[in-house]
């Protein structure tokens, strides 16, 4: 039953795609900023503060926003915003000021509460109650797989002779994965 559920499959795909971007971006940019732009660990961490702060500010209001706009619409919108943020960072010229990159990364941080809570809500609302634990386990496994694969693949891409090209390819790939998940999210039921 669970293995054939379209809602389960799409939710797992969204969880996977979300973690590719949400783990992949900090991994890629922290290495790039420190190794190629000469930033200290502290300065690199500060560059990520706006991305994390925006997600923390939006999260308390997500339940109301879901109630107003619907979970599916929110998840789709969040994935599109994530793709835009990833693409903006990927396509930024090599010497783009860090504050501009931080603003672009805020889109990814903003997308997080728009994607995960609505997707989780849809999933748990559309599986039998006795399978909710299994569904949660599959969902979380897909998320962790996405994060682990992103780190492995993007690490290999960054190890090449041209680091900025590795950033471009890695984050462009993450953006494409987010766009594919946005398209797939339209297959989830409305709530």
What does this structure look like?
The model has no long low-confidence stretch (mean pLDDT 93). This protein has 7 helices and no strands. The longest helix is centred in the first third of the chain and has 30 residues, at 6-35. It is globular, with a radius of gyration of 17 Å. Helix 1 (6-35) packs antiparallel against helix 7 (163-185) and helix 4 (71-90) packs antiparallel against helix 5 (98-125). With 191 residues, it is an all-alpha fold.
Please state roughly what percent of the residues sit in beta strands, choosing from under 5%, 5-15%, 15-25%, 25-35%, 35-45% or over 45%.
under 5%
Radius of gyration: 17 Å
Number of strands: 0
Compressed to H and E, one letter per element, the order equals HHHHHHH
Oligomer: single chain
- What is the overall number of helices? 7
Look at the structure and give the mean pLDDT.
Answer: 93
pLDDT < 50 stretches: none
By secondary-structure content and strand pairing, the structural class works out as: mainly alpha
Largest sheet composition: none
Helix content: over 70%
Q: Please report the distance between the alpha carbons of the first and last residues.
A: 20 Å
Given the C-alpha coordinates, what overall shape results? globular
Structural topology:
Layout: H1 6-35, H2 41-58, H3 62-69, H4 71-90, H5 98-125, H6 132-158, H7 163-185
Helix pairs in contact: 1-2, 1-4, 1-5, 1-6, 1-7, 2-5, 3-4, 4-5, 4-7, 6-7
What keyword list fits this structure?
single chain, mainly alpha, 7 helices, globular
């Amino acid at each position: 039953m669970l293995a054939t559920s379209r809602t389960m499959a799409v939710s797992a795909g969204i969880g996977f795609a979300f973690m590719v971007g949400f783990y992949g971006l900090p991994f890629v940019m922290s290495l790039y900023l420190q190794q190629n732009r000469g930033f200290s660990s502290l300065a690199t961490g500060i560059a990520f503060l706006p991305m994390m702060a925006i997600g923390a500010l939006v999260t308390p209001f997500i339940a109301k926003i879901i109630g107003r706009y619907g979970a599916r619409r929110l998840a789709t919108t969040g994935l599109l915003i994530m793709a835009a943020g990833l693409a903006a960072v990927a396509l930024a010229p090599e010497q783009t000021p860090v504050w501009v990159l931080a603003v672009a990364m805020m889109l990814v941080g903003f997308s997080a509460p728009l994607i995960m809570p609505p997707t989780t809500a849809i999933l748990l609302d559309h599986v039998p109650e006795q399978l909710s634990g299994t569904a949660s386990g599959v969902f979380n496994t897909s998320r962790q797989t996405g994060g682990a694969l992103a780190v492995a693949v993007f690490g290999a891409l960054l190890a090449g002779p041209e680091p900025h090209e590795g950033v471009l390819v890695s984050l462009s790939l993450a953006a494409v994965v987010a766009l594919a998940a946005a398209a797939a999210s339209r297959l989830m039921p409305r709530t």
